[in-house]
Design brief:
By secondary structure, the protein is mostly helical. It has helices at about 10-15, 20-40, 60-65, 70-90, 95-115, 150-165, 180-185, 190-205, 215-225. Residues about 225-235 have low confidence and may be disordered.
Length: about 240
């Protein structure tokens, strides 16, 4: 269970998720909220509409249990990522009804407490009163600006991991274009440029007809890579 914390703002975190991941991200957010209900014993007996919790204390479930601000953040994220799913894939996610059920039946009092007693409309956002989520990513991508990680550190870490470890897959696409933060990370990463150069070499050998001039060949390579973003010096 892993929420991609790609921004401190939950709607921006959802929007930054690629098309391939939004379906599973919506599912996992809904599952975590269902597990929260069961972990806090908010349901009066079994509820067949909830995703059944196996009792495992996932890192991001532990985070939800820490305070109502975290619950409000994930609820906002989940609501928006379902909207992204419908807008990008032109269909409704089957878990949307479960999310609406779990919020309406069990979590609304927690959300009311947050918005009435904790949330500052003039403040920096929901995340300001959230605790810092755990990073469920390889250690090499974890960033710390001080002794204890901040929420901003978590976002930088997830963005770096997402941009450098996930973005070179063929299925990694955005209907409306890649986020600027992802492009910036890639443009300044020797690791990313090395990956692109290896793809270029492979495609040059396997996809370019004999006799094609280099300008046309480079366009063919970029077309074949489709949604892969090249460093600026490669752009035509």
């Amino acid at each position: 269970m892993n929420i991609f914390f790609l921004d401190t703002i939950p709607t921006e975190a959802a929007w930054g998720t690629c098309d391939h991941h939004i379906g599973n991200s919506a599912l996992q957010a809904t599952q975590l909220l269902c597990y929260l209900v069961q972990a806090k014993n908010l349901a009066n007996g079994p509820d067949p509409l909830l995703y059944n919790w196996n009792g495992k204390m996932y890192p991001h479930l532990e985070w939800l249990l820490e305070n109502n601000s975290n619950v409000a953040w994930l609820n906002k994220y989940a609501r928006y990522i379902f909207s992204c799913y419908e807008e990008r894939l032109d269909k409704e996610h089957k878990s949307l009804g479960i999310l609406e059920h779990v919020v309406d039946q069990y979590l609304q009092p927690l959300l009311d407490d947050f918005y009435h007693n904790i949330y500052d409309e003039d403040g920096p956002g929901i995340y300001a009163t959230c605790t810092v989520p755990k990073m469920v990513i390889p250690d090499i991508f974890k960033i710390k600006s001080q002794e204890e990680s901040t929420f901003e550190d978590v976002v930088k870490s997830y963005r770096t991991w997402y941009a450098l470890e996930k973005a070179d897959a063929e299925w990694f696409k955005y209907k409306y274009g890649r986020p600027q933060w992802l492009r910036d990370i890639q443009d300044n990463s020797p690791l990313w440029q090395s990956k692109i150069n290896k793809k270029k070499e492979t495609l040059t050998v396997t996809h370019i007809p004999i006799g094609m001039n280099w300008a046309d060949a480079e366009k063919r390579i970029i077309a074949d890579l489709n949604n892969i973003h090249f460093p600026k010096q490669w752009e035509l």
